[in-house]
């Protein structure tokens, strides 16, 4: 749809009082502008649409309200009862535009958001929106921050599953806890993140004295296939080669995060150091040192260079300071996920 047609469609839906259609077209405008590189404008449109569609959510308790950097107040869920030991709930203001991602990955995530925002329209045609995602890639490549950005974009809570609370040694107990989580998905719409997912997905064939891990994976497969909630399920792993093959076909999308390219590294550094004077930086020399580093490590190197600048009493970043910070990250062990 061209921009002129979108304007006409917006006006028509406004005159007809069709708010759902108006917001759906507005999201199409945002997506089109984002593809053309107009990220700030696209973000502004998405925020306005999100504000119009914001709804409060509760998981087995009552909502709290806290200050937000983007809105006056936002709702925050508080899991209670048995869920308190299984879920960690937050309300994030992260956005997809805040992330530095390859174009192919960004487009796939934008497609998820568009389908989520227009899910009612899809369901009227017996179609289901994408909402079950498997993110695979090396530590620090941006998988968990992607889950936060999806939650922020959709204005729904991010609920991280505490696997240490789910997996127990007692027969049947882990599956029962998984059922509680999947039941919660139907009660409260959110982004449910299974981080370090290989803890569940890679052990069905492993030896175990009671076979509890095998039962957990079998239960997960069953619950995932039967789930018809409107929540978004995100599983993230650093070791896709360890996952049971039956898992992959249960997800709507499998998105692979690779190591950052030189172009991505420059974008990460510039984005993180936007508040500083980076004119002295020779970006080609700086990114030459980033080979083998993850996105998270590059961001940390930028932070270290920034701190050195602040403590020195100025806001200028030099190539030498950045190279030193990057090389320190190269020598440091990484545990980023």
Helices, strands, pairings?
Layout: H1 3-15, H2 19-35, H3 39-53, E1 64-67, E2 73-76, E3 87-90, H4 103-117, H5 119-123, E4 132-137, H6 143-154, E5 158-161, H7 163-166, H8 173-187, E6 191-194, H9 198-201, H10 212-226, E7 232-237, H11 245-248, E8 253-257, H12 262-272, H13 283-288, H14 295-311, H15 319-331
Parallel strand pairs: 4-7, 4-8, 5-6, 6-7
Antiparallel strand pairs: 1-2, 3-5
From the structure above, extract its key features:
337 residues; alpha/beta; Rossmann fold; Helicase, Ruva Protein, domain 3; 3 domains; 6-stranded mixed beta sheet; two-stranded antiparallel ribbon; 15 helices; 8 strands; 49% helix; 11% strand
- State the CATH superfamily name of the largest domain: P-loop containing nucleotide triphosphate hydrolases
At CATH level 3, the topology of the largest domain is Rossmann fold
Order of helices and strands: HHHEEEHHEHEHHEHHEHEHHHH
Which strand order does the major sheet show?
3-5-6-7-4-8
User: Which percent band covers the strand fraction?
Assistant: 5-15%
Tally of separate helices = 15
Level-1 CATH class name of the largest domain: Alpha Beta
Could you give the count of β-strands? 8
Overall residue-averaged pLDDT value? 81
Our count of domains comes out at 3
Any low-confidence stretches, pLDDT <50, length ≥5? 55-76
Portion of residues within helices: 40-55%
Summarize the structure.
The protein is an alpha/beta fold.
Explain what you see:
- This protein is of the alpha/beta class.
- It folds into three domains: 1-53, no CATH class; 57-257, Rossmann fold, CATH 3.40.50; 262-331, Helicase, Ruva Protein, domain 3.
- It has helices at 3-15, 19-35, 39-53, 103-117, 119-123, 143-154, 163-166, 173-187, 198-201, 212-226, 245-248, 262-272, 283-288, 295-311, 319-331; strands spanning 64-67, 73-76, 87-90, 132-137, 158-161, 191-194, 232-237, 253-257.
- The chain has a six-stranded mixed sheet.
- The radius of gyration is 22 Å and the shape is globular.
């Amino acid at each position: 749809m061209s921009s002129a047609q979108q304007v006409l469609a917006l006006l028509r839906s406004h005159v007809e009082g069709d708010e759902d259609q108006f917001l759906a077209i507005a999201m199409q405008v945002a997506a089109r502008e984002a593809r053309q590189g107009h990220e700030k404008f696209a973000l502004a449109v998405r925020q306005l649409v999100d504000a119009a569609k914001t709804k409060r959510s509760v998981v087995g308790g009552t909502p709290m309200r806290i200050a937000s950097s983007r809105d006056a107040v936002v709702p925050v869920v508080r899991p209670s009862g048995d869920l308190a030991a299984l879920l960690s709930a937050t309300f994030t203001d992260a956005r997809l535009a805040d992330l530095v991602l390859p174009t192919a990955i960004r487009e796939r995530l934008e497609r998820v958001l568009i389908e989520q925002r227009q899910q009612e329209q899809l369901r009227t045609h017996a179609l289901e929106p994408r909402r079950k995602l498997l993110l695979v890639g090396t530590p620090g490549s941006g998988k968990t921050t992607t889950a936060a950005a999806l939650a922020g974009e959709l204005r729904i809570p991010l609920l991280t599953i505490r696997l240490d609370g789910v997996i127990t040694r007692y027969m049947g107990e882990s599956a029962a806890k998984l059922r509680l989580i999947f039941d919660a998905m139907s009660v409260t719409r959110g982004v449910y993140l299974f981080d370090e997912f290989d803890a569940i997905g890679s052990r069905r064939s492993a030896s175990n004295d009671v076979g509890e891990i095998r039962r957990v994976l079998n239960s997960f497969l069953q619950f995932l296939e039967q789930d018809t909630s409107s929540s978004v399920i995100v599983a993230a792993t650093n070791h896709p080669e360890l996952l049971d093959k039956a898992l992959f076909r249960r997800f709507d999308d499998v998105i692979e995060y690779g190591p950052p390219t030189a172009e991505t590294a420059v974008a990460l550094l510039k984005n993180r150091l936007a508040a500083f004077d980076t004119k002295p930086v020779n970006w080609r020399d700086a990114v030459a040192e980033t080979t083998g580093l993850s996105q998270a490590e590059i961001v940390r190197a930028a932070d270290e260079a920034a701190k050195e600048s602040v403590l020195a009493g100025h806001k200028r970043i030099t190539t030498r300071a950045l190279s030193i910070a990057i090389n320190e990250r190269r020598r440091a062990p990484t545990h980023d996920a």
